[in-house]
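User: Before I run my own analysis I want an independent prediction to cross-check against. Here's the chain; please return only the structure tokens and, at the end, one sentence I can use as a sanity check.
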Amino acid sequence: MPIVYYDGNCVYCYNYCIWLIQHGLPKNYEFAMLKGEAGQHLFKQHPEAKNKNSVILQEGDRLYYETTAVAKLITTLSSKKWLGILLRVMPLPIRNLGYRLFANNRDKMWKTHWHKPNAYEKSFFIDDDRQ
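Assistant: Structure tokens:
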């Protein structure tokens, strides 16, 4: 079962997870906070992942970071597959530069709100207790 690890303190990361669910992410995907129990287990198995300031997609023993993870996730959405493919066509250093610029400045950007998940959306999260 693929697991998407995200920063549970980041409203953009959390809302991205919700966006994926709302646009048809397959039910076999799960979300776990990087600082949660599942995230700590990941870091024990893959210590190199702890140095990444990134969303992490785990598929079996393979880990994907930054825009590679984002593009793989978007590609699973039948209505947005084209967007994932378009992202993958862009050179990796350029797309990851954009990702890092956003990640490092997300708190200085526009404000947004935390999405209140419904029961279906909650079912994707391993260790999130948001009401």
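Sanity check: The chain is about 45% helix and 10% strand.
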